Amino acid sequence: MENKKLTIIKDRCPQNHKCPAVKVCPVGALSQKDFSVPIIDYDRCIKCGKCSNFCPKRALVLMKED
Question: pTM of the entire structure?
Answer without folding.
Answer: 0.88
